[in-house]
């Protein structure tokens, strides 16, 4: 199956399943959704060329593995106690992207609610997934998350979004 | 422990800071915060922007000095001005954007318009002001003193006082190391900002930014995943670095004898590094080159009183917003004249540890939260800053030096805090 042939229902099912892995705290399984050259990217406010502007997160696969290890360790004070997260995903559609090669480019919006220490934080995101099909399963080559709140003075974004 | 009534009718500022401990009211009492705004942020030199953020005539940036909103501008003649962002008529802010380019600012309330040097171009419907109206008296307020050190723009709301060079004093040498690491001798702050906040007093960040003691514990998990760190003394609790009271409230962690060699290796590693080193060597010569390399990155952490930190590749600014709420901006720097891929690698290294999703900084914020909670205990009035008291030495030039994990920089901060707040050391 070519990723470009995936229908929207299949893509939506994948995005929902991906979000469930984060929401359920199954970070190891979430990590396995990424290709070896996968990138998880959350731009900071100000500019979206990662060569020119700092990002909140710009993880290649190795950095993402280190991030997941850290989140699961017991020496990560920013996650003691741990964040609880729920994703609500909508506005899912594919867009044409000539530069994406064999990946289908999927845009979606999400409301991500995080609770920790009796406080609720609401993040409003626009996501761009580059999805490929490898070994019969859908994988993420790139996940970009643009936060509406990127220029806010947010305290703790150590949980996965 | 004696439980006492925390309610104090009188505020005795002089009694709040002793040589080796700080009363919790320093962090908790809203009246202390008010006095800080008045006696520290309204008098001393405060960092407001970097010249690289305002390269062209008309460029501006908005920020705050203490509570006061200000606009930092580069006027048509190239001069830097720091103006109060307050219409001279009925007080509305005249500039809304974090940065931009404009030769004038127009107040939306009644249309008064000002040049970017602050002068009033005109009051609208001017017949309402009669012939005695003196336009020159109605410019935007001007922060009276502005000076620049190696691109760092500072402003002082006091017309009189020590010069910027006097204020920076011994800190200049360490600002120089950061700038001299650039092949063109200048830092560039145009690569975005990390922002975060925490629900407690601003001074905790100033203490923590030059605290090498906590790194061994708060950041233990992060360091344990960097193989090279296990090779340096720093990570083994056997550091040979020093912490320094530079005078005027400025503090330094000098880990060059621990990390210098590693930092030298790191700076020569990765994309563009060979070309970067060739360009730098050509400008500064071999001796200074070696000195700069071993002084780069986390080998030196500098705090500049009252609210500026130079850590890693970043310029960090601490904004006190309320007695129990603080906002922070991190500006990762580029090295002017370094290859783009080398500067890009600086961003990636910075993101690994710093920022709201980094592997280190958010852990500090969690600890700040725990400090805030613990400090509510009544009767336990003092925060201890005595570590290394017995082994601190004073050098001929007045610097006080201790072990890198000692609380020398924290004591330096509060010595100046006390001097500013009550007029005595």
Which descriptors apply to this entry?
heterodimer, A: 161 residues, alpha+beta, six-stranded mixed sheet, 42% strand, B: 425 residues, nine-stranded antiparallel sheet
Mean pLDDT of chain A: 96
Termini separation of chain B comes to 29 Å
Provide the structure class of chain A.
Answer: alpha+beta
Structural class of chain B: alpha+beta
What summary fits the major beta sheet of chain B? 9 strands, antiparallel
SS field, number of helical segments of chain B: 12
- Please tell me what the overall shape of chain A is: globular
Order of strands across the widest beta sheet of chain A?
2-1-6-5-4-3
Low-confidence parts of chain A: none
Largest sheet of chain A: 6 strands, mixed
What is the global morphology of chain B?
globular
Helix content of chain B: 25-40%
Q: Helix coverage percent of residues of chain A?
A: 10-25%
Please report the number of helical segments of chain A.
Answer: 3
Order of helix and strand elements from N to C terminus of chain A:
HHEEHEEEE
Account of the 3D structure:
- Chain A is 20% helix and 42% strand.
- Chain A is α+β, with helices and mostly antiparallel strands and 161 residues long.
- In chain A, β3 and β4 form a beta hairpin.
- Chain A is globular and about 45 Å long.
- Chain B is an alpha+beta fold and 425 residues long.
- Chain B has a nine-stranded antiparallel beta sheet with strand order 13-19-18-17-16-15-14-23-22.
- The two termini of chain B are 29 Å apart.
- Classes of the chains: A alpha+beta (161), B alpha+beta (425).
- The interface between A and B is large, with 34 and 37 residues.
How is the topology of this model organized?
The complex is a heterodimer of chains A (161) and B (425).
Chain A: H1 8-23, H2 27-31, E1 34-43, E2 55-59, H3 61-72, E3 84-95, E4 104-116, E5 119-134, E6 137-147
Parallel strand pairs in A: 1-6
Antiparallel strand pairs in A: 1-2, 3-4, 4-5, 5-6
Chain B: E1 21-23, H1 25-28, H2 30-39, E2 46-50, E3 59-65, E4 68-74, E5 80-84, E6 99-101, E7 104-106, E8 113-115, E9 120-122, E10 145-149, E11 152-156, H3 164-168, H4 172-180, E12 187-188, E13 194-198, H5 203-209, H6 215-218, H7 220-224, E14 242-247, E15 250-254, H8 256-267, H9 273-294, E16 300-304, E17 308-311, E18 314-322, E19 325-332, E20 334-335, H10 340-353, H11 361-374, E21 382-384, E22 393-394, E23 400-403, H12 408-422
Antiparallel strand pairs in B: 1-21, 2-11, 3-4, 3-6, 4-5, 7-8, 8-9, 10-11, 12-20, 13-19, 14-15, 14-23, 15-16, 16-17, 17-18, 18-19, 22-23
Helix pairs in contact in B: 8-9
């Amino acid at each position: 199956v070519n990723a470009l042939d995936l229908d929207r229902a299949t893509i939506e099912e994948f995005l929902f399943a991906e979000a469930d892995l984060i929401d359920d705290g199954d970070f190891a399984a979430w990590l396995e959704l990424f290709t070896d050259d996968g990138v998880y990217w959350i731009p900071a406010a100000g500019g979206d060329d990662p060569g020119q502007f700092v990002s909140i997160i710009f993880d290649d696969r190795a950095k993402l593995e280190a991030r997941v290890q850290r989140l699961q360790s017991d020496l990560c004070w920013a996650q003691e106690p741990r964040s609880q997260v729920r994703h609500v995903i909508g506005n899912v559609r594919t867009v044409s992207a000539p530069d994406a090669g064999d990946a289908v480019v999927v845009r979606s919006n999400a409301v991500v609610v995080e609770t920790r220490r009796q406080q609720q934080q609401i993040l409003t995101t626009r996501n761009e997934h580059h999805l490929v099909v490898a070994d019969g399963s859908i994988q993420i080559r790139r996940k970009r998350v643009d936060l509406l709140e990127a220029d806010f003075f947010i305290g703790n974004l150590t949980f996965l979004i | 422990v004696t439980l006492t009534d925390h309610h104090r009718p009188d505020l005795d500022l002089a009694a709040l800071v002793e040589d080796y401990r700080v009363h919790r009211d320093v962090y908790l009492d809203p009246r202390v915060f008010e006095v800080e705004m008045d006696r520290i942020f309204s008098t001393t030199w405060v960092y407001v922007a970097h010249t690289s953020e305002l390269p062209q005539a008309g460029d501006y940036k908005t920020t705050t000095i203490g509570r006061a909103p200000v606009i930092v501008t580069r006027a048509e003649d190239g001069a830097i001005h720091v103006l109060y962002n307050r219409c001279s008529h009925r007080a509305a802010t005249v500039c809304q954007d974090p940065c931009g380019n404009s030769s004038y600012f127009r107040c939306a309330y009644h249309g008064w318009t000002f040049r970017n040097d602050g002068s009033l171009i005109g009051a609208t419907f001017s017949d309402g002001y009669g012939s005695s109206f003196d336009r020159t008296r109605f410019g935007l307020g001007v922060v009276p003193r502005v000076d620049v050190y190696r691109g760092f723009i500072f402003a002082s709301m006091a017309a009189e006082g020590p010069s910027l060079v006097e204020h920076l004093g011994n800190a200049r040498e360490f600002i120089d190391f950061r700038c001299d690491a650039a092949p063109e001798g200048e830092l560039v702050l145009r690569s975005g900002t990390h922002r975060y906040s925490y629900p407690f007093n601003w001074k905790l960040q100033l203490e923590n930014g030059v605290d090498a003691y906590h790194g061994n514990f708060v950041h233990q998990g992060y360091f344990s995943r960097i193989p090279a760190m296990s090779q340096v003394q720093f990570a083994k609790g056997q550091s040979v670095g020093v912490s320094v009271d530079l005078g005027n409230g400025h503090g330094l962690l000098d880990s060059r004898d621990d990390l210098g060699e590693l930092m030298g290796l790191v700076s020569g590693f990765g994309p563009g590094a060979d070309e970067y080193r060739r360009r730098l060597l050509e400008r500064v010569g071999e001796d200074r080159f070696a000195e700069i390399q071993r002084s780069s990155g986390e080998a030196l952490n500098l705090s500049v009183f009252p609210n500026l930190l130079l850590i890693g590749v970043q310029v960090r600014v601490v904004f006190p917003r309320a007695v129990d709420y603080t906002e922070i901006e991190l500006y990762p720097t580029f090295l002017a004249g370094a290859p783009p891929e080398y500067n890009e690698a600086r961003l990636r290294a910075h993101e690994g540890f710093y920022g709201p999703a980094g592997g280190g900084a958010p852990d500090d914020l969690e600890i700040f939260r725990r400090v805030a909670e613990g400090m509510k205990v009544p009767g336990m009035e003092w925060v201890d800053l005595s570590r290394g008291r017995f082994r601190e030495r004073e050098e001929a030039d007045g610097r006080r030096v201790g072990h890198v994990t000692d609380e020398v920089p924290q004591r330096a901060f509060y010595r100046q805090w006390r001097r500013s707040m009550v007029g005595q050391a």
